[in-house]
Amino acid sequence: MVFASRRDALTGLAATGLAAVIPRSPAMAGEKLASVVINGMPATPSVVMARLIETGALARFADKAQLKVWRTPDQMRAGVVSGEMAVFGTPSYSCANMRNRGVPVRLMNIVTWGLLYLMSRDEAVQKIEDIAGKTVLMAFRNDAPDLIFRMTLRKLGMNPDTDVKLQYVGTPTEAVQLLLAGRASLAVISEPAATAAQIRGAAAGVTVRRTADLTAVYGRLTGRPPRIAQAGLGMREDFLQANPELVRAIHQGCIESARWVLDNPAEAGKLGAATLDLAAPVVERSIPHFRLDVVAAADAKPDLQHYFTALMEMSPDILGGRLPDDAFYWGPAA
């Protein structure tokens, strides 16, 4: 399988000096920024960012704090390379790939430790091994969901290119629509779309089962805890250098906001509904399924390197040919 994609073209711009540079921040002179934008991912972890903005924890650093949610990984990568996105939700491997290809980024933290599930309408599929010879819907080709699914199948001794038929779609929402319409019986779906599939299915009289937790399956096969350092926040280097205290505040705010989300799922569901354009009960019920635990990248480094090494065993190009350097892993003491 060839893993080269639009990410290579996008990140290649940085090496040629075409990436726009964020203007030097007024915070360097002790002044507040006019605004700070966190560009969240289209998944349940963005509820943490929404809570961070709601608390006003960044008010002493910026007059205005905003959360915007990107739609696709390609949109996120393009925004980071151009300089438009300075703080961004990202699959951890994608941030590492960008750095290895010359984009000046670092990983701030990990927020979710696994949120992918095999959802099924097929009664014959009771465990992941039962999917041999079947068609599976998958969003975001060559990105984290696809890579983690392939990584897991390889550990099972299956060839993801020949033992199953992967049918790629644009987004998790599209996968849910096709699954509920009966045009597919199996799909790998991230949260909160996985929970949405179950809730919407129940309303339509369709049973959608959470057949396999890919994170738990991978942990079982590797003898590790059910945790994959899947996604968190990244940042551009120029933003970090201009605003080190703001970065620390964002990270600490994520820790505190994550506690609130876990302790207040109903309120978090309402907060996340507008952010993710989903019904509040969907967001609320998805919260237990995305392994929320905010850990600084420096502290998560052993888990990240294990995950990155497993990805590189499939293809070194996934990480841009090597593990990222030590400076990639930000920590609050840095």
TrEMBL record:
Superkingdom, taxonomy of origin: Bacteria
SUPFAM superfamilies: Periplasmic binding protein-like II (SSF53850)
InterPro entries from the UniProt entry: TAT_signal, UCP027386_ABC_sbc_TM0202
Residues in coiled coil: none
A Pfam short name: NMT1_2
Annotated protein name in UniProt: Sulfate ABC transporter substrate-binding protein
Organism of this sequence: Rhodoplanes elegans
